[in-house]
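pls design
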């Protein structure tokens, strides 16, 4: 687990490389789709935190109606606070997932993901489980398929191409999310485990030495302020967010949501 590769972000706590022992587990072939999440909503009447708060973050060039954006993030002005943006209106009012049933659900917080997982009789994967699954049986490779981002010139995940954040050339075929099975699976049969949408993990986030003990059943610290997210998204680009590597990681507060954050479940 982890990496010492110079392409990484040491400040994210990606290293050191260490051995971790896990029990056997199952994990979803793909992230949870809009279709599957809709079944949860219809069965339970659940309201996501984006709906309760009344807004979520949407990438600037994807806004259904730019006039609705209320504010931007100072450190990342491409993120817009948009009232009415939520899982079934991912670009804000006027947008829909009607033709995106097989795309990953987004605008879900860690708390929302945990609620879905409990309803479905599952849970979120730990970071160690997620990383083991993402590696697909390979050892210390950058990506789920090897060390080359585009082997033979073939796109293997949905990330940004072009000049971030100004122009996405969509050379991989997509601007925004793609169907969860749009690209070949890894060696364990898992689809889009990197790129497309960030995926929540069960663990609290830390960059401290407690995550590098190598103890069995590693689950991270017992408390914290933010939860781990893995896998990168359709907005990741080598010039800014080279976090579609298997060992890459980031975090967000459990009540946060955005148009590039989803999840998959484990057992």
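designed seq:
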């Amino acid at each position: 687990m982890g990496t010492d590769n110079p392409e990484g972000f040491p400040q994210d706590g990606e290293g050191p490389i260490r051995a971790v022992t896990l029990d056997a587990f199952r994990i979803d072939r793909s992230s949870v789709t809009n279709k599957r999440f809709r079944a949860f909503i219809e069965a339970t009447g659940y309201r996501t935190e984006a709906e309760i708060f009344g807004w979520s973050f949407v990438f600037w060039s994807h806004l259904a109606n730019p006039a609705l954006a209320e504010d931007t993030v100072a450190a990342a002005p491409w993120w817009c606070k948009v009232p009415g943006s939520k899982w079934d209106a991912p670009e804000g009012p006027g947008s829909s997932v009607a033709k995106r049933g097989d795309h990953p659900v987004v605008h879900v917080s860690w708390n929302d993901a945990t609620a879905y997982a409990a309803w479905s009789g599952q849970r979120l994967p730990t970071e160690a489980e997620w990383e083991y699954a993402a590696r697909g049986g390979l050892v210390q490779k950058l990506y789920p398929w090897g060390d080359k981002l585009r082997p033979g010139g073939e796109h293997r995940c949905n990330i940004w191409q072009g000049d971030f954040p100004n122009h996405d050339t969509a050379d991989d075929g997509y601007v925004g999310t793609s169907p969860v099975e749009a690209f070949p699976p890894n060696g364990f049969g898992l689809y889009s485990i990197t790129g497309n949408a960030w995926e929540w993990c069960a663990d609290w986030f830390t960059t401290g030495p407690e995550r590098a003990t190598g103890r069995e059943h590693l689950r991270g610290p017992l408390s914290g302020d933010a939860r781990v997210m893995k896998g990168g998204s359709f907005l990741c680009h080598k010039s800014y967010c080279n976090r579609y590597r298997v060992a890459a990681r980031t975090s967000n507060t459990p009540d946060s949501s955005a148009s590039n954050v989803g999840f998959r479940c484990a057992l």
